[in-house]
Write a structure and sequence with these properties.
By secondary structure, the chain is α/β, with parallel strands linked by helices. 46% of the residues lie in helices and 14% in strands. The chain has helices at residues 11-16, 24-38, 53-62, 77-83, 110-119, 145-148, 154-160, 174-177, 193-204, 231-234, 240-245, 258-268, 273-278, 283-296, 311-331, 347-351, 358-363, 365-381, 388-393, 402-408, 421-429, 434-442, 447-463, 481-494, and strands spanning 67-70, 91-95, 125-129, 134-138, 150-152, 170-172, 181-186, 207-210, 213-216, 221-227, 248-251, 279-280, 336-337, 413-416, 467-472, 475-480.
Length: 495
């Protein structure tokens, strides 16, 4: 609970307490200095920026700069802006009733000046918590000057019998109401240039112009903007005078490696506690999800200017857990474990999170997603097992996969998505040589891990074109590659 009972309640008491006014940027700077000296983290829950973005933000705050975060979607730009609130003083005094949180010692609105002139030291004081000093606005093409700056209110003018040139008829917009706080505009290039001009005017000149009359209003604000690089060419740009006023532009980035990406995914995934306790996600399957994002960020089918958000892996992780949970519920099982084939269940997280280029549209979103899964499996497979292509070509060494491939020349294996654990293991045990390969190269493991690695071998052989893999309505089918090719050719001939 926010306690203000022991703080001064009048202007006279405030002066007697020795309170000194301080600008927002000085607050941020002074409190940042305290945190840095104590070795306390400035930002929490944001991983991967410790040696890149955070130092740049801290330097900008120490320099008392307005900031523009430039980066692709899902790179924690808004989260950093919101956490800057914690660098503000816990409470600041304001003239009670002021629509723009006037500083009692430095009032700027006519309302506050008149109130202080009338009541003097008895002017009532309100205390504002730092959480109430944050304003955020998403820039959209329909944002108006009235939304941000304000407009004359004809009803107020009529009720108070005031002329339209009187400041008291103004209904202040978001920016004046954010006075003495942090004001964030997300996706700033989407703001129309004429609106950006009005924004620049209040930043640079300290005045606002509404309905033909000019008003000096020296607002005290820390501005933070966010932008996606794609926006500069596709939807708009930051006008040069405004860009010049934003002193520090800070580039955000993707996680540098899959370990950091995985930590972000596990931290941000919103799984119900009951689901967390009953569903196990093996490290291999979790790594494959992170590898999916890596492959997507390198894919020629995906528009890299739009980017691949960290939300892709987060939602994929959530879908993966739910895929396992659904199978458990259908089979009345108490515990569940993710399988490599469960990656099919994360398709909705991929197809809705990426922008495809023309070639990708021709391929189809599902085709692109399945291709990414295949590449992720192939990349990770090489970290566990011998290269199937090299093993096949080596004359003096036995091919470890020969027995498996030979069995599939006459047999097919269907792994249904909702298959219970007992029958899942029974099917994998039916493939000769599969268990020995999994154990030889991944070591002795608990049953759950051993069967997962056995399935992984099948997926790897399929990605290296040693087996065929077909996506069924209810699962996957593995078979002989050449039989699959000829069957497809016969089907084409029949058509």
């Amino acid at each position: 609970m926010k306690q203000t009972s022991n703080l001064p309640e009048t202007l006279g008491a405030l002066r007697a307490s020795g309170y000194h006014s301080k600008s927002v940027k000085d607050e941020l700077r002074d409190n940042l200095i305290v945190k840095l000296r104590k070795g306390e983290p400035v930002f929490t829950g944001i991983l991967g920026y410790e040696n890149s973005v955070f130092p740049e933000v801290e330097r900008a705050l120490l320099s008392r700069h307005n900031i523009n975060f430039l980066g692709l979607r899902g790179q924690a730009k808004t989260r950093m802006a919101r956490q800057m609130v914690d660098l503000l003083d816990e409470f600041i005094p304001a003239v009670a009733g002021s629509p723009i949180n006037d500083d009692p010692l430095l009032p700027i609105s006519q309302f506050a000046k008149d109130l202080i002139q009338t009541h003097g030291d008895d002017t009532p004081i309100a205390w504002i918590h730092r959480s109430d000093r944050y304003t955020e606005k998403l820039a959209t093409p329909d944002v108006t000057v009235a939304d941000l700056i304000g407009d004359a209110d004809p009803i107020k003018a009529a009720n108070l019998k005031l002329d339209y040139a009187d400041e008291r008829v103004i209904h202040f917009g978001l920016i004046p109401r954010g006075h003495r706080g942090i004001f964030v505009i997300n996706e700033i290039p989407d703001l129309q240039p004429r609106i950006q001009v009005a924004l620049f005017n209040i930043l640079q000149e300290g005045d606002i112009q509404i309905r033909g009359f000019k008003l000096r209003l020296p607002l005290d604000l820390m501005f933070v903007f966010t932008a996606n690089p794609e926006d500069y060419t596709n939807r708009g740009a930051i006008i040069t005078p405004l860009k010049d006023r934003i002193q520090s532009q800070i580039l955000t980035h993707y996680p540098r490696n899959t370990e950091i990406s995985g930590a972000i995914t596990r931290q941000e995934a919103r799984l119900p506690e009951a689901q967390r306790q009953r569903v196990e996600i093996p490290a291999l399957v979790a790594d494959l999800i992170e590898q999916l994002a890596v492959e997507a960020r390198q894919s020629e089918y995906i528009d890299q200017k739009s980017g691949v958000s960290a939300r892709l892996t987060i939602t994929a992780y959530e879908n993966l857990a739910s895929t396992v949970e659904r199978r458990m519920l259908i089979n009345d099982e108490k515990q569940g474990r993710a399988r490599v084939g469960d990656l099919i269940g994360v398709l909705p997280s991929l197809t809705g999170k990426v922008e495809l280029v023309y070639e990708g549209e021709q391929e189809g979103s599902k085709g692109v997603a399945l291709g990414l899964m295949g590449k992720a499996i192939r990349t990770r497979y090489a970290q566990y097992f011998p290269d199937p292509e090299l093993s096949k070509r080596r004359k003096n060494e036995p091919n470890p996969y020969a027995e498996i491939i030979a069995w599939f020349s006459e047999n097919e294996l269907e792994l249904i998505s909702d298959l219970d654990e007992k029958n899942y293991r029974k099917l994998l045990d039916s493939v000769p040589g599969l268990r020995s390969v999994a154990e030889k190269y991944s070591g002795k493991q608990p049953d759950g891990d051993r069967y997962m690695m056995m399935e992984f071998v099948l997926h790897g052989l399929a990605e290296y074109s040693m087996l065929s893999k077909n996506v069924l309505e209810d699962g996957l089918a593995f078979g002989d590659l050449f039989n699959s090719v000829f069957s497809a050719k016969d089907a084409d001939d029949e058509r």
